[in-house]
Amino acid sequence: MAPQRRRPALPSLGGRKPNFREKVVDVLRAALISGELRPGQVYSAPALAPRLGVSATPVREAMLELVKEGMVEIVPNKGFRVTEVSDKQLDEYTHVRSLIEIPVTVGLATTAEPADVEALRPEAMEIVTSATKGDLIAYVEADLRFHLGLLALAGNDHLVEVVRDLRQRSRLYGLTALVEAGRLEASAQEHLELLDALLARDPERTREVMTRHLGHVRGLWAAH
Question: CB 79: neighbour CB atoms within 10 A?
Answer without folding.
Answer: 19
